[in-house]
Design a protein that fits this description.
The complex is a heterodimer of chains A (about 280) and B (about 35). Chain A is an alpha/beta fold and about 280 residues long. Chain A contains 10 helices and 10 strands. In chain A, the strands form 4 sheets. In chain A, strands 4-1-5-8 form a 4-stranded parallel beta sheet, sandwiched between helices. A two-stranded antiparallel ribbon of chain A has the order 2-3. A two-stranded antiparallel ribbon of chain A has the order 6-7. In chain A, helix 2 packs across helix 10. Chain A is globular and about 60 Å long. In chain A, about 40% of the residues are buried. Chain B has one domain. Chain B is about 80% helix and about 0% strand. The longest helix of chain B has 27 residues. The radius of gyration of chain B is 15 Å and the shape is rod-shaped. The chains are: A alpha/beta (about 280), B mainly alpha (about 35). Chains A and B meet through helix 5 of A and helix 1 of B.
């Protein structure tokens, strides 16, 4: 079976969707799984259904450099040795928030692959009241948070997160890191002739309010010109993202994510562009 | 004397800027743990 590879953060893994069990398994209600289902079709002899093996590399809280890394890893691991890249049917990615970092830390068993850490603004010190508000009283998430805080202290990620956000983090560098990750993955997929479609969760990847981030200087303009926007699906003007669209359209939400119906409808919106891009 | 006050003032300014930036980032970035 050829592989359908999906990349992204919690919006792609499907945290909080109706079949989600604490983000342990990729949801079958997510936009990415919906696109995978849409690629099923009868074989030319009509005696069986052509399906694809769904490989979801998304995890909750992942940032853009981490998304690119995990998709690249899947592409390199899953390409069949005999069939090569032809064994990969397509790749779809929903890029996430710029403010998340991906770092190879000194080895520790609690890290992804004993090495990789995803760092988000939520990994800095937080007042109890703020945490309670963010978790909307969810006991499961409170438990997750407590366990993760302990692990973050042991692995050294927490003090590192504090240092980054306090002394170094800035929008310019985060834009640079995200765009570099996007271009890196795009060029690899193009070189390997793997069909792909990119989309996004939030347009802060490209805009600050109404101002395009490429207009900051000639370097950013040049970097942006390397992104092949013909391979993208956006949910509206100014590269509107999935999360923004679901908020605007007032879809039902969980604690922090749009629920099943938003994903279902997003698939319908994406299908024409998706089919065109993967040549179906 | 003035250097000392200036240092404290800058520290407070940096701390406020840090908190403001974190607040803005957290507003957009959904809280989710794996």
């Amino acid at each position: 079976m050829r592989k359908f590879i999906a990349g992204g953060c919690s919006f792609t893994l499907g945290n909080e969707l109706s079949d989600d069990v604490n983000g342990k398994e990729p949801s079958r209600k997510s936009w990415a799984y919906g696109l995978n289902l849409a690629t099923r079709k009868p074989s030319p002899t009509l005696n069986y259904l052509i399906k694809h093996n769904y490989i979801c590399t998304a995890t909750g809280g992942l940032g853009n450099p981490g998304i690119a890394r995990r998709v690249f890893d899947a592409v390199s691991q899953h390409a069949n040795k005999e069939k090569g890249e032809d064994d990969i049917f397509c790749v779809v990615v929903m890029w996430s928030f710029k403010s998340r970092y991906d770092w190879a830390m000194p080895r520790h068993n609690d890290l992804e692959g004993t090495r990789w850490a995803t760092i988000s603004p939520w990994d800095t010190d937080m007042r109890d009241e703020e945490r309670h508000q963010a978790l909307a009283g969810s006991e499961v998430q409170q438990e997750h948070w407590k366990r993760r805080q302990q692990a973050m202290l042991e692995t050294g990620v927490k003090p590192f997160a504090e240092a980054i956000y306090r002394n170094a983090a800035n929008d310019y560098h985060e834009t640079y890191l995200s765009w570099k990750s996007i271009i890196w993955l795009q060029n690899i997929l193009e070189k390997k002739k793997i069909p792909f479609m990119f989309t996004l969760a939030d347009n802060s990847l490209f805009y600050q309010d109404f101002q395009h981030l490429k207009d900051q200087d000639t370097f950013m303009a040049a970097l942006h010109s390397e992104i092949d926007l013909t391979k993208w699906f956006s949910f509206g003007e100014r590269m509107m993202g999935f999360n923004q669209w679901s908020l605007m359209e007032k879809y039902e939400r969980g604690t922090t994510h749009p629920l099943d119906k938003a994903h279902e409808d997003a698939v319908q919106l994406m299908l024409p562009t998706f089919k065109k891009l993967i040549g179906e | 004397m003035f250097t000392w006050i200036k240092k404290i003032f800058n520290k407070i300014k940096q701390e406020l800027a840090y908190r403001k930036r974190l607040k803005e980032l957290k507003k957009k970035d959904p809280f989710i743990y794996k």
